[in-house]
Structure formats: structure tokens, C-alpha cells
Amino acid sequence: MVAEADLESRVTKLRVECLPLPKRRLTAPNVVAGTLLLNHLPVFVLFYSRATHSFIAYKTIEKLGMSPYRVFMGFTISTPLRERVDVDIVYKNVRLFIMRCELSTDLIPLPLHNFDIILGMDWLGRHRAQMNCFAKTITFCGPISRGVVFRGERNVIPNYFISAMTT
Fold this sequence. Notes:
Strands 8-7-2-3-10-4-9-6-5-1-14 form an eleven-stranded mixed β-sheet. It has a three-stranded antiparallel β-sheet with strand order 11-12-13. By secondary structure, the protein is mainly β. Helix content is 12%, strand content 47%. It has helices spanning 4-10, 58-64, 121-126, and strands spanning 12-20, 32-38, 41-47, 55-57, 69-78, 84-94, 96-98, 101-102, 105-110, 117-119, 129-132, 137-140, 149-151, 160-166. It is globular and about 35 Å long. The chain has three helices and 14 strands.
């Protein structure tokens, strides 16, 4: 039997931040978001470089009927209200499409409300993405996606951002 201290040291800890955006802002200059295809269904995605991992909303999982992969070493996610959420499920190799280019991702389920998916640094780095927040574009430089450019929406007004950082 594994001691509780051993289990605690094996769990990846994440800190999640929710940052409110003022409603009066019609555009968010530091946000790149838009619609992508996830397993051929449209989803609203936030590209967020302050998140270490990528996330999927529970409501989106229900629509797509995806099968989870249980991980041995789960995640402990801390919210700004100092609540802890333990997650031991990941959706692996989920197919995302940008301009007919398939860029897979692993997604951790969370109760998201304003976005269907948040793509963090794990996904941005894997696909050699370069983010231009001013132009609201993501340019991909990977071997499969070289030259693909995603153009985000101009008027994105989410109530909250979510960021996860390893602690």
C-alpha cells in the first residue's frame, strides 16, 4: 500500500485562476479565441498561453460522447476560491481541425462556461504555435501545420479566464 505522503508527491498540482473581464470592453486585446472543429463539430476555443494544460468543458464532452482515459497520477486543481478539484481523467488525442489541418490534443475536463475548450501551452508548444494577440492570429510552424494561420474573432467578451499553473 502506498503512503498518503507518496501519493501527494505524485499528484500534479495545478493552480487555476479566474480573471474577470469588465463588461464594458467590446474587444479583449489580449485574447485569441474563435471557432474550431473538434471531431468535426464546431467548438468555441480560447488560446491561452498562461495555462499550462488544455481543458474541455463538461457540457462539450456530453455533446461529443468521447471516451475518457483514466490517469494513474491525477491532477489537483485549485480554484481562486481555494477549492480543490481532483481530476483523474484525460481525453487523449482529441482531433482538432484548423483549416483542414488536424492538430490533436489531450484535454482535462473542467466546468467551463464561456468556452468549450481552452488550449494552453502544452498544445501551443507541441504544435509550434506563434500567438499574435494584437492581430488575433495563431501561426503554426510545425512539420504538419507549417503555414497554417488561425484568425481569431474580434469581439470576445468572456466573463472569466481560466489559467492553470503548476505549483
